[in-house]
Amino acid sequence: MYFLDKNINKQEGIIRCLSLTMIVMASGLFISIPFFKSAKIEKLDKHESASCMPNLDHLCRSDVKERPWEYIVIHHSATAKGNAARFDQYHKKMKGWEYGLAYHFVVGNGSFSGDGEIEVGSRWKKQIHGAHTANMNCNRVAIGICLVGDFENGGAPKENQFESLVSLVQYLSRKYNIPSSNIIEHKHVHQKATACPGKNFPFAELKTRLLQIASKSSNHKEL
Fold it and tell me: Which of 83, 123, 124, 129 is nearest to 107 (CA)?
């Protein structure tokens, strides 16, 4: 009986020690979980914030002295498919334009380039005026951005395509101090009539998104 009681006490002591050890380990685990979770989120946030601007810095780098750009003009290709290379060939062969591609940037829709892929034309690399409007005075001071797609007879831009456009316009407007009022659609240029970039292009949404980004950036600086 004494032997049994002693063993029981010993077992209870062991159980208490094990229980205490498990409690300590569990407590440490609960403390560590938020730490590892927040560390992972912080790493993702840094990666996400670094994934846009540095790429655009590299992508938008020109080979010569930059021009004092004053406007950004948004276009659509009015075709279901296409990319910078195809438009470049068309503008050289059919239009007879020496510098080819009329635009400075082309944003793909996944047909012959990636969905949301930003392609840079040689006009931008060489800082040559565009040929994207019929108003030469505008072309000399306006950055031309074309989205692949027909937003007059088809639907709206794809989500990735629109997100890339927002990032690109935000980057260029900030870099060259282009006000929101000077970010316009092709049809707003004083020239012959055009529907470009089409009735289904969400221009108001683009302006709203740009204002939201500018507001967040301003609030962040104040903090």
Answer: 83
CA gap 149, 3 in Å, rounded: 88
* Domain final residue, candidates 25, 59, 93: 59
Q: Which domain holds residue 209?
A: 62-222
For residue 217, the model assigns a pLDDT of: 76
Residue range 59-105, pLDDT digits in tens: 999 889 999 999 999 999 999 999 999 999 999 999 999 999 999 99
**What's the total number of domains in the chain?**
2
Q: Do residues 60 and 171 lie in contact, with contact meaning Cβ atoms separated by under 8 Å?
A: yes
Same domain, 74 and 142: yes
CB count within 10 Å of CB 160 equals 16
CA of 209: how far to CAs of 5, 83, 163, 165, 214, in Å?
76, 25, 10, 11, 9
pLDDT tens-digit series, residues 1-49: 322 333 334 444 443 444 444 434 444 433 333 332 332 222 223 333 3
- Residue 44: how many CB atoms within 10 A of its CB? 10
